[in-house]
Amino acid sequence: MKHKISILFIALLFILVAGCSDGPKPDPTIKEYMKNWQSMKFDKMYSMLSDKSKKEMTKDEFAKKYSAIYDGINAQNISITPVIPKEEPDPDMNGNVTYTYKVKMDTLAGPIQYKHKIKMAEQEKDDKKKWFVKWDYSQIFPGMEKGDKVRVQTNKAKRGEILDRNGNGLAVNGMAEQIGIVPQELPGNGDDSKQQLAKALGINKEVIDNALNSSWVKPGYFVPIKTIAEDDPRLKKILKIKGISSQSIETRVYPYKEAASHLTGFVQPIKAEELEKLKSEGYQSTDVIGRRGLEKFYEKQLRGKNGGLIRIVDEGENEKRAVAKKEAIDGKPVKLNIDMYLQRNLYNQMNKDVGTASAINPVTGEVLALVNSPGFDPNDFALGILGSRYQQLEKNPKQPLLNRFAYTFAPGSTFKPITAAIGLETNKLNPNKEVAISGKKWQKDKSWDKKFVTRVTEVPSVNVNLEKALIYSDNIYFAQAALAIGKEKMVKGAEKFGFNENMPFDLDFENSSLTKEDIDSEGMLADTGYGQGRVEMNILHLGLSYTPFINNGDLIAPKLVKEENPKPKIWKENVVSPETATRIRSSLVKVVEDKRGTGYNPPLKGIKLAGKTGTAELKSKVGEKGKENGWFVAFNQKQPNLLISMMIEDVQDKGGSHYVVPKVKKTFKTYMKEKPLH
What is the pTM of this model? Predict the structure, then answer.
């Protein structure tokens, strides 16, 4: 009898298994579920849950929970794959099938990787048997239970500081005061205090009201209104207003303000559209990002990498386990060749003028200063600039937001040494030959119609050689020299000096330019000879273009970042011969040291300089009177270690380049006598 029962049981079991094998398999369902999970399609995941699992939470709650956690941990590169065995797993006593799956993802606290189990249950739906996922809280993270929460802590990396050659901070990590209101501390209805605060901060009262009416605000909460500098003179007055308080917060500080504003740039909170593009690089919504200047250029080096901690806590906020942990890696500092003593000195010399200046060591190529005048206070931007303040800067006719040292301008007579060098190198200019030139105006012939080349000052001698032409800055001599050189050789010669190509430098500059297309007539070629026409140079390249006259013909490459043992790096070798370099340098000495020279006044005692002045007239057509930009390039003769180039706009009523010369000379005097370069 027992034997018959056993045979009957085996037969029934065979029928059951055979019946199961004909039904739907769980493999496709688990694969699809994992695929939706990996793609973060949480709504579709929910639709694949068993009826019992759906009772744990609604579809909306399910999707929001996953989204909040994955967004909070900054989940990236998510990989979720089921481990499908060769043979279908056996059902348990309840008919559930268990699979293993693997999870990999990158998070703000580092990579997370684990294996876990998931159960599948078969149930009838629409008169058909289908497989569904038996979900529980451990599917979010292993070990999680109902009532547990995922807590995320970001460990902010400190931003690397930007330092000058002597360790002075151009952009540093400091503190600011966040002005705010605790609603329950306002007297009465608070209108009087809010009105006083609005006036002190230069904002509308509505800004304060909107902040206080935010959904998260409670009577005892501190509500931030505006962040100001620690040393802001308004702070004492503001804190006397009833109900107003402040909190110290970390922020980026720019101690030199306007003097280095275009060099440093500034940081600001990252925008939503930027975060969308940069999230994969570890940026978070609370991060700042470099907007302009060095802050932007060295962003990757300066910003460092945030760390983080992801924990599972119970309902009492007791930690159950750490899911992932990563230490923050602080950003690296950037130490520059810039000398802020010199930078600020140049800025102060330019005072309220509009212009730009650069300073280099002409032997090593170290860039010692890059100045733009006027500047702006980058702290305003880092702390959150008001719209009204930004509009003031934008509408200012002096354009303080325009970074002039990155742009090009007609260099005027400071280009004449380059013309002279090209003429000597092409044998189109005999330096000793005296050219007979009389009067203040000259034209090649009547075909020039109303086109004339005009001398800025009357040259006392009719016979002019190269040295006299540089001393007196004779436009006619250099116009004739350019015509003798010719368009092709003029452009080719300029390109040996670095024109029409990218300067080998960290920051972006507009290229100095002189092309064949620019020189479309004889008159334009003549104008090019004395730095007018369409020849354009940026202020840094102008200074670099004089280095062949100091370095036996080699054009030095500019270096912004400080090196322990700086060695010269050559941008272009043998731009001119040593003989040409010596001859032009000798003439540049006389431009400044000879009483006849355009760069002589005011004489400077104790420091012997060489250099060249220049006045570039800006006009749209022949015959009209235009605005003038004044230029001066100078370097110390004995063991040259400082070369300054300066341009100031609108000097037509200030004496042209003679307005610029004293400013450069005062900088040499102050810098080299009171603080020698080190």
Answer: 0.85
Burial of 128-144, coded b for 16+ CB within 10 Å and e otherwise, reads eebbbbbbebebbbeeb
Give me the catalytic one of 50, 53, 413, 657: 413
User: For residues 391-406, b (16+ Cβ closer than 10 Å) or e, as one string?
Assistant: eebeeeeeebbebbbb
Q: Among residues 513, 514, 583, which one has the least CA distance to residue 552?
A: 583
Known catalytic residue: 413? Answer: yes
CATH of 24-146, one of 3.40.50.2300, 3.10.450.100, 3.30.1490.190, 1.10.3720.10: 3.10.450.100
Mind listing the pLDDT tens digit for each residue in 528-577? 999 999 999 999 999 999 999 999 999 999 999 999 887 899 999 999 99
Assign a CATH topology to domain 341-674.
Beta-lactamase (3.40.710)
| Model pLDDT for residues 606-634, shown as the tens digit of each residue | 899 999 999 998 865 555 667 999 999 99
Cα–chain center distance at 204:
31
- 162-335 maps to which CATH number? 3.30.1390.30
What are the distances in angstroms from CA 192 to CA 180, 197, 200, 236, 515? 15, 9, 12, 18, 65
Q: Based on the number of CB atoms within 10 Å of its own CB, is 26 exposed (0-12), middle (13-18) or buried (19 or more)?
A: buried
Residue 599 corresponds to which tokens in the numbers above?
Answer: 């760069």
